């Protein structure tokens, strides 16, 4: 089955063509990626310091057709060879979701093919199956994106149990807000990570929120406030080098955030007895987090699985793949032409 995937939930327009043939034959899932095209709106939103929803929707409209052509070209397939269409139905920005949903549903009707609305986080969660060291079910997933920070038990496709989540800011949000405080452009996760590499350890002792809370929840807004307090404390008359100050502060921020994520992940592994942890979502691209998780996994004897690096942030491939697995399991949209989007959508209810 050849599935077209459409992602438009936030500020990336992603289209991909995925063939389930290899997966169904028990071969590596990544072999099924036939074509993919992506446009990031980051440059457009940068001057506003964050995503402007109306601009995002309009840009998705502009991009979706040319990207479809590009993905089909790469796959060397005509549109008629598509067997089913998967699109991100939520969660995300309502207007942005409407573009992909309306496009996906209309195309499915025009081609007389089935369609399926995909939960964006399910796309992230299953994307490590597309990587080289793919995990087997069941596994624990640490989902760290711009909007979410969750620990989930994944028993199989569609079988998810939420074990813990952030009570305030998401990990990516904390990265982006810290970036802003340090004068870095939006979205600043990767830039903070790079800056932190030049920082010296030990200069700042930032909090590790909820580390000993006894549960698997997270909180990152206090960490961001602690960064703000240090930034405000820096005097322009200080003989200190501001660039080094920022790097040292970025280092301490990353260290705190990573420490909390790693310790809670190790805790859930210990509690459940599962041996596999999947890291997914945009923050999953973070070098320091990967290094710390790998070290902990070696110590505690569990395995960490990552999606291919380019599939960590939003893309059409993960939506095509998650949709394909749902379709293979017998799910699909109802027969009417009516559709809706789900800007807020609990994954365990998907
Ligand atoms: O999953 P994603 O592309 O979009 C959402 O669904 O939210 O994640 C975007 C988030 C942003 O907050 C971005 O700053 C963060 O992922 N991010 C990173 C890195 N690359 C992206 N954070 C830390 N280190 C990185 N290398
Ligand atoms: Zn995402």
Question: Could you explain the architecture of this structure?
Answer:
- With 350 residues, the chain is α/β, with parallel strands linked by helices.
- The protein folds into 2 domains: 2-127 and 311-349, ATPase, nucleotide binding domain (Nucleotidyltransferase, domain 5), CATH 3.30.420; 136-306, Nucleotidyltransferase, domain 5 (2-Layer Sandwich).
- Helices cover 42% and strands 18% of the residues.
- It is built from 11 helices and 10 strands.
- The strands form 2 sheets. A 5-stranded mixed sheet has the order 3-2-1-4-5, with helices on both faces. A 5-stranded mixed sheet has the order 8-7-6-9-10, with helices on both faces.
- A hairpin with a 4-residue loop joins β1 and β2.
- α3 packs parallel to α4 (94-111), α6 packs antiparallel against α9 (242-272) and α7 packs across α9.
- The two termini are 22 Å apart.
- Bound molecules: 5'-O-[(R)-(carboxyoxy)(hydroxy)phosphoryl]adenosine and zinc ion (ZN).
- 5'-O-[(R)-(carboxyoxy)(hydroxy)phosphoryl]adenosine binds at residues 10, 145-147, 172, 175-176, 187-190, 193, 281-283, 285-286, 313-314.
């Amino acid at each position: 089955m050849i599935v077209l995937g459409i992602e438009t939930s936030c500020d990336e327009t992603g289209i991909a063509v995925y063939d389930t043939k290899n997966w169904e034959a028990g071969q590596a899932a990544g072999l099924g990626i036939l074509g993919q095209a992506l446009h990031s709106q980051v440059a457009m939103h940068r001057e506003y310091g964050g995503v402007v929803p109306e601009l995002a929707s309009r840009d998705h409209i502009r991009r979706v057709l040319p990207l479809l052509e590009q993905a089909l070209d790469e796959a060397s397939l005509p549109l008629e060879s598509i067997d089913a269409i998967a699109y991100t139905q939520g969660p995300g920005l309502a207007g942005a979701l409407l573009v992909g949903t309306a496009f996906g549903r209309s195309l499915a009707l025009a081609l007389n093919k089935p369609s399926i609305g995909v939960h964006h986080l399910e796309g992230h969660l299953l994307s490590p199956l597309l990587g080289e060291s793919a995990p087997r079910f069941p596994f624990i997933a640490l989902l760290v994106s711009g909007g979410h920070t969750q620990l989930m038990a994944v028993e199989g496709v569609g079988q998810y149990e939420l074990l813990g989540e952030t009570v305030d800011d998401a990990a990516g949000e904390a990265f982006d807000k810290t970036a802003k405080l340090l004068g870095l452009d939006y979205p600043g996760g990767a830039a903070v990570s790079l800056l932190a590499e030049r920082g010296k350890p030990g200069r700042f002792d930032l909090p590790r929120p909820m580390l000993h809370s006894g549960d698997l929840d997270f909180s990152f807004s206090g960490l961001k406030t602690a960064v703000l307090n240090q930034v405000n404390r820096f005097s322009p008359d200080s003989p200190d080098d501001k660039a080094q100050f920022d790097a040292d502060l970025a280092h301490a921020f990353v260290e705190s955030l990573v420490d909390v994520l790693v310790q809670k992940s190790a805790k859930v592994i210990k509690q459940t007895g599962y041996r596999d942890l999947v890291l997914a979502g945009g923050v999953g691209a973070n070098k320091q987090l990967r290094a710390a998780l790998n070290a902990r996994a070696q110590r505690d004897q569990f395995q960490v699985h990552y999606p291919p690096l380019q599939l960590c942030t939003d893309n059409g491939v993960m939506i095509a793949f998650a949709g394909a697995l749902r379709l293979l399991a017998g799910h699909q949209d109802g027969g009417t032409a009516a559709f809706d989007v789900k800007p807020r959508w609990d994954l365990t209810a998907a």
